[in-house]
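Let us work through a complete example step by step.
Step 1: write down the sequence.
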Amino acid sequence: MADLRQWLFRAMMFEADCEPLRTAGIRIGADQREFEDSLMEETLRPFSVAMRNDALRMTRIYALVFCFENSVRQLIKDRLEENSGLDWWEKCVPQKIRSQAESRQKKDTENSWLEGDKGSFLLYTEFGHLADIVIANWASFSDLIPTQHWIKQRLEEMEQARNFIAHNRRLLPGEFARLEAYVGDWNRQVGV
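Step 2: predict the structure and record it as tokens.
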């Protein structure tokens, strides 16, 4: 029994040590992608082929919007924390936005069966308010972003697409290309 425990412990330690390598894109052990693909196939099997194909096409754009939105949030956090300190949320975020995000987090924490990430008030800030936070703290972002109008326009258009996608509507290929171009513009502008 002690040998089994020791073997299991070593296996768990190996898995934990390998995770940063996997995250960096280095393949170790069983092919995770193949495993995830088979799980996806099994999960989607009850639905029509047309619906599954639409869902799989939309996963690419969902992933792009997810990464984009969270990179904007991270940029805001990093810049404001760097320029205003750890209490940047209280100092830099307009009261109305803070109140709404704090209320949403409180409601989520008290009433939700979902146990995902609930730590940061910034995660509870509406996507449309991110441009408002940047504009309210323009001095912290003016070296990265050409104009306030530029960020407001880009984030408003991205928000429209984000909400469209979040309500499980399909986009056309030209709309995919437009979103990819906007994200590419953003990444070049802010140095991602």
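Step 3: interpret the result. The longest helix spans residues 49-84.
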